[in-house]
Amino acid sequence: MVVLHPGAELYGADRVLLSITGALSEQWSVSVVLPAGGPL
Q: What residue spans define the domains of the chain?
């Protein structure tokens, strides 16, 4: 599964992304694509 996300910070939506991808990765291989480097 590939997840595209528009930012690489650690604000609300970014933290939700971490939670969701963590849960998904228990059953699937998950790759996250970000536009730049950052804390995320």
A: 2-33
